[in-house]
């Protein structure tokens, strides 16, 4: 089982993701945005950061990187792909996930621990019981998820809403619990099939207990277990 | 040689560029002819205060700069110390005050960009940023604009780079109203053997410019701005402000560190103030070689740029490398892979001269070392300010009618926690990515940030750590520069020790008014003497730093502000401590003794709008002993929490530990027991130095007392953690939730007085 | 070679926080008649490609059709 972590110019969480994966005892390698080959990786992670400086729009330029054509093909074949923060923005720009990220309503960059509620979903990357609350940091300026009403209904109906921002007790506040104004408090979604997953929070920051916690571990261990089961 | 200035015109241009007549004469003497336009620009910038330290150099010699851990002292782009097991950290602090007063976002952003370049130039990977900020009071819209803009700029740049901003401090005082201070400190990590110095060598080697194109940005920017006082016309200077491009800087970090790790560079220097001129001439003079640059080879982003403009442009995100002809191809390949141009613009020569060409024509030809080293050194007049006697004669206890009954004292504690100088800085640091790189063990909001040494994701994770803090209470320095500057070092060291770090070395950023005013210069020299004495006594050498003079507006100097950035070492990063009380039943011990020292205190300011009196005393031996007690106790794993007493005194320190831990405390100061009868306001709010509030599980109390006794540090068991309120004798009784509400919300309310709940409103909109 | 100006704005109904903030700030400054402020992007392109190519550039990169509208104006020959 090998993770591939894509490095775009301006990515800055790729080392953190690799560290988290290695800390959990799995293997990871860096994939270069200019390459047209994913090698023999079993799962792909698009890390956070500011690919191409977030110029034009977050993720707008990175989606045209040569490797993204390969990532799309990999996803179409059912390969597991997770986009974290900027990676989520890239997946949305690449139309591998629906919707788009607007600027935070507070007009400020936000970096803090954030309670997230696990929803009942078809996501391959997370199979914790619905209702569980995880503490995972957010770290972004454009994390305000938006899609049109029809898409939103489809996301809910298809079990594609994976994570929602919530209060520490798991409830959703009247007027929203999202720190960024996200529609329906959506923090993470997956595609219909469940193999492509995008989320704004940073699970890799809460894997090594020395610097965070352990609430992020499931985001990496679940897919390993699932792939082993499929293979097995 | 292009002779483009007549002997009559040259001195007039020189004067316009800020060269004094004698300095101009010296240039003529060096060249033995009338200088060209390009040469005059280059000399005027290199001999400006900002680049030459001509007024400060002599005083700076007082600093101790050597120690067993020091691998690189002052004089390079950054200082470097060994932190054990072959690891080294490079760090430096620098001001970007004047550009930020014009355009706070870009000024602060490019300040971060500049200090980060200083770090990776040394071969170190930047791992942390700290920011020390000073503004006027937030009731003024302009101050809110500057504050919000500067914070956004620091975040905008650092967040994009993926370097965590882990600490810093901010004060709001009238004295900074016309001249905000933006000091940025960066820390980098490397293996000792990778230490790189910006020394040009090897005639025939090539000068390669890497990174952004060159425009007219900041011509006369940092160096000129930093050398002038400010007036109402500041806005008009806007065009010369540089715009930062953190994306390109991120690519530069990656490309340069890759070039260095493959040993492809002879030397590397960053382009900061005075651009190519400064970078190239300093590299040449350190190496004792000459350089030749053809300005037409420099990639330009604007039309018709003059040679002098190219030589002094302060366009950001550029690096100058010395490369052997054999390595050039590989260097250019790596840069191209990172999307960066790498252009040969000249070469190293053995003539010792710095020759500037425009194509075939020579437009400048100077002895290279004279730019960096022949600036005049001044010995400015110094005079003790008359205001000091009057301020010291002020007796805070005698002067005012101080509260002594519980209701008033509790309400004063609330006022202090809501003070802009004390309240929570969460509003600021939540705008910074403070966690990227997986090194931040103690987040902002505690006494010091604690970082794990290592490069996670590159297979390098260690158990070692560093603790870092930046500090300076300018009010104390204003009241007594010698003592105030020592307090800056003492507090930084205490913060680091409370977190478990052994203070190792400091950097500084010395922000003062005009050195040409004798009272300012006296203050400057006293502050340096104070810091130097403290640093010598505590064996924390000064390994890098920056002087920022001319911080004045409307003729009034700012509070003298020698900001200290201190790095301490943790042998085992697991042995760190935070300020938060942990569990009910833990015993609270006060290390150090409280005295009636309310001079310059936040209490006087908040309660009586007064800044006067003598600042708290500093006992160098006691401070060192206190740190030894803290480090020994933390090392033995005895302390559940540790927090130093600073602004707001013991009461605020206790409240902060309660708020951070979400738990109350019952404290008994037994004011009368020793017969010293401290008045309640002094017991609660006195800012006596050399104190820390620690909490300990009951079984360990005796061991902590033994340690305190063995170092001769006075101690008192003052109470117990628990409950939902902070109670101090019969004097203070406040629910922690209420304290927290005031403490956490204050800053946001000051910044947005009219829209406390901005996000809700926006969402409804 | 022609010069085009492209204006990218949020679609009707998409909340525009910078616009809303500017709107409120203007009212705070005393401009009571302010009804609405929208903030968008301005892009200038010089190309021999023709307006259809510019439209394609917008669809593909310069605007995100999920949230943004765009308008192209030819402003002269470069």
Could you describe the 3D structure shown?
The complex is a heterotrimer of chains A (232), B (765) and C (78). By secondary structure, chain A is an alpha/beta fold. Chain A is built from five helices and eleven strands. Chain A has helices at residues 14-23, 66-76, 86-93, 149-157, 218-231, and strands at 2-7, 27-32, 43-46, 81-84, 100-102, 110-118, 133-140, 144-146, 161-165, 186-190, 196-199. In chain A, strand 1 (2-7), helix 1 (14-23) and strand 2 (27-32) form a beta-alpha-beta unit. Chain A is globular, with a radius of gyration of 16 Å. Chain B is an alpha+beta fold. Chain B is built from 28 helices and 28 strands. In chain B, strand 14 (440-442) and strand 15 form a beta hairpin. The longest helix of chain B is centred in the first third of the chain and has 21 residues, at 141-161. Chain C is built from two helices and three strands. Chain C has helices spanning 17-28, 51-62, and strands at residues 2-10, 41-47, 68-77. The chains are: A alpha/beta (232), B alpha+beta (765), C alpha+beta (78). Chains in contact: A-B, A-C, B-C.
Please summarize what this structure is.
The complex is a heterotrimer of chains A (232), B (765) and C (78). By secondary structure, chain A is of the alpha/beta class.
Q: Write down the overall mean pLDDT of chain B.
A: 93
- Largest interface, with Cβ-Cβ < 8 Å? A-B, 40 and 44 residues
Question: What is the average per-residue confidence, as pLDDT of chain C, rounded to a whole number?
Answer: 90
**DSSP summary, beta strand count of chain B:** 28
Oligomer state equals heterotrimer
Q: How are helices and strands ordered from N to C of chain C?
A: EHEHE
């Amino acid at each position: 089982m090998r993770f591939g972590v894509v490095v775009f110019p301006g990515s800055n969480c790729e080392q953190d993701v690799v560290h988290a994966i290695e800390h959990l005892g799995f293997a990871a390698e860096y994939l270069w945005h200019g390459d047209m080959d994913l090698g023999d990786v079993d799962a792909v992670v698009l890390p956070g950061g500011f690919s191409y400086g977030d110029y034009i729009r977050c993720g707008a330029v990175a989606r045209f990187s040569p490797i993204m054509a390969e990532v799309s093909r990999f996803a179409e074949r059912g390969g597991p792909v997770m986009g974290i923060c900027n990676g989520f923005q890239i997946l949305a720009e690449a139309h591998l996930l629906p919707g788009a990220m607007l600027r935070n309503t507070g007009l400020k960059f936000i970096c803090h621990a954030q309670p997230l509620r696990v929803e009942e979903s078809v996501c391959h990357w997370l199979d914790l019981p619905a209702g569980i609350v995880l503490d995972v940091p957010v770290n972004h300026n454009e994390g305000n998820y938006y899609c049109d009403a029809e898409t939103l209904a489809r996301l809910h109906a298809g079990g594609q809403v994976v994570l929602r921002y919530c209060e520490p007790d798991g409830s959703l506040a009247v007027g929203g619990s999202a720190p960024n104004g996200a529609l329906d408090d959506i923090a993470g979604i997956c595609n219909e099939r469940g193999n492509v997953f995008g989320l704004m929070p940073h699970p890799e920051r809460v894997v090594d207990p020395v610097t965070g916690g352990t609430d992020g571990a499931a985001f990496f261990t679940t897919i390993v277990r699932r792939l082993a089961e499929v293979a097995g | 040689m292009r002779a483009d200035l007549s002997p009559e015109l040259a001195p007039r241009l020189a004067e316009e560029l800020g060269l004094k007549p004698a300095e101009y004469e010296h240039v003529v003497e060096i060249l033995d002819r009338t200088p060209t336009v390009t040469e005059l620009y280059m000399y005027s910038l290199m001999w400006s205060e900002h680049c030459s330290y001509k007024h400060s150099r002599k005083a700076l010699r007082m600093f101790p700069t050597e120690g067993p851990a020091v691998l690189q002292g002052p004089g390079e782009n950054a200082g470097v110390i060994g932190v054990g097991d072959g690891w080294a950290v490079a760090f430096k602090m620098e001001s970007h005050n004047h550009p930020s007063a014009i355009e706070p976002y870009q000024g602060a952003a490019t300040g971060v960009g500049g200090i980060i370049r200083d770090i990776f130039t040394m071969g170190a990977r930047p791992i942390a940023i700290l920011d020390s900020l000073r503004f006027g009071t937030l009731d003024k819209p302009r101050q809110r604009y500057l504050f919000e803009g500067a914070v956004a700029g620091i975040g905008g740049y650092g967040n994009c780079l993926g370097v965590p901003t882990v600490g810093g401090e901010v004060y709001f005082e009238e004295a900074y109203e016309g001249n905000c201070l933006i000091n940025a400190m960066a820390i980098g990590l490397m293996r000792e053997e990778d230490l790189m110095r910006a020394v040009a060598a090897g005639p025939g080697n090539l000068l390669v410019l890497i990174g952004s194109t060159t425009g007219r940005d900041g011509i006369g920017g940092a160096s000129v701005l930093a050398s002038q006082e400010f007036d109402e016309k500041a806005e008009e200077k806007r065009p010369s402000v540089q715009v930062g491009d953190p994306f390109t800087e991120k690519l530069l970090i990656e490309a340069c560190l890759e070039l260095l790790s493959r040993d492809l560079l002879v030397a590397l220097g960053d382009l900061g103030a005075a651009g190519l001129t400064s970078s190239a001439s300093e590299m040449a003079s350190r190496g004792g070689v000459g350089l030749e640059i053809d300005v037409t080879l420099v990639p330009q982003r604007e039309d018709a740029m003059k040679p002098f403009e190219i030589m002094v442009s302060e366009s950001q995100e550029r690096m100058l490398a010395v490369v052997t002809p054999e390595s050039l191809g590989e260097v250019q390949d790596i840069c191209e892979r990172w999307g960066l141009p790498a252009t040969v613009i000249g070469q190293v020569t053995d003539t010792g001269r710095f020759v500037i060409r425009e194509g075939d024509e020579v437009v400048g030809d100077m002895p290279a070392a004279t730019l960096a080293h022949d600036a005049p050194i001044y010995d400015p007049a110094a005079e003790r300010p008359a205001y000091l006697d009057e301020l010291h004669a002020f007796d805070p206890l005698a002067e005012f009618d101080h509260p002594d009954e519980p209701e008033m004292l509790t309400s004063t504690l609330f006022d202090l926690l809501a003070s802009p100088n004390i309240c929570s800085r969460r509003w600021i640091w939540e705008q910074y990515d403070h966690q990227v790189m997986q090194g931040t063990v103690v987040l902002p909001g505690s006494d010091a940030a604690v970082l794990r040494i290592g490069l996670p994701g590159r297979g390098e994770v260690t158990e070692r750590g560093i603790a870092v803090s930046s500090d300076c209470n300018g009010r104390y320095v204003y009241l007594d520069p010698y003592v105030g500057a020592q307090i800056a070092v003492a507090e930084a060291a205490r913060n680091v020790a409370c977190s478990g770090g052994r203070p190792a070395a400091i950097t500084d950023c010395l922000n003062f008014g005009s050195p040409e005013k004798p009272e300012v210069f006296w203050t400057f020299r006293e502050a340096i003497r104070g810091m130097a004495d403290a640093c010598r006594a505590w064996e924390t050498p000064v390994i890098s730093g920056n002087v920022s003079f001319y911080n004045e507006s409307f003729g009034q100097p700012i509070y003298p502000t020698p900001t200290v950035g201190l790095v301490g070492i943790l042998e085992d990063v697991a042995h760190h401590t935070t300020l938060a009380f942990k569990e009910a039943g833990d015993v609270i011990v006060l290390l150090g003794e409280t005295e009636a020292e309310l001079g310059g205190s936040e209490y006087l300011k908040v309660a009586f709008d007064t800044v006067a009196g003598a600042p708290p005393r500093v006992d160098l031996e006691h401070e060192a002993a206190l740190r030894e007690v803290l480090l020994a106790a933390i090392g033995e794993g005895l302390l559940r929490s540790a927090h130093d007493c600073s602004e707001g005194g013991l009461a605020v320190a206790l409240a902060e530990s309660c708020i951070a831990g979400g738990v109350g405390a019952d404290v008994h100061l037994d004011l009368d027991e020793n017969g010293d009868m401290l008045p309640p306001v002094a017991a609660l709010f006195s800012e006596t130095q050399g104190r820390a509030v620690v909490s300990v599980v009951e079984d360990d109390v005796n061991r902590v007392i033994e340690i305190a006794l063995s170092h001769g540090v006075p101690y008192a068991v003052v109470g117990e953690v628990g409950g939902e309120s902070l109670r101090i004798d019969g004097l203070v009784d406040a629910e922690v939730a209420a304290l927290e509400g005031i403490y956490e919300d204050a800053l946001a309310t000051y910044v947005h007085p009219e829209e406390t709940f901005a996000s809700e409103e926006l969402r409804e909109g | 070679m022609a010069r085009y100006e492209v204006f990218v704005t949020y679609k009707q109904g998409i909340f525009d926080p910078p616009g809303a903030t500017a709107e409120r700030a203007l009212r705070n400054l005393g401009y009571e008649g302010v009804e609405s402020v929208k903030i968008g992007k301005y892009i200038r392109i010089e190309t021999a490609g023709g307006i259809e190519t510019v439209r394609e550039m917008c669809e593909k990169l310069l605007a995100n059709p999920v949230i943004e509208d765009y308008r192209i104006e030819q402003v002269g020959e470069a």
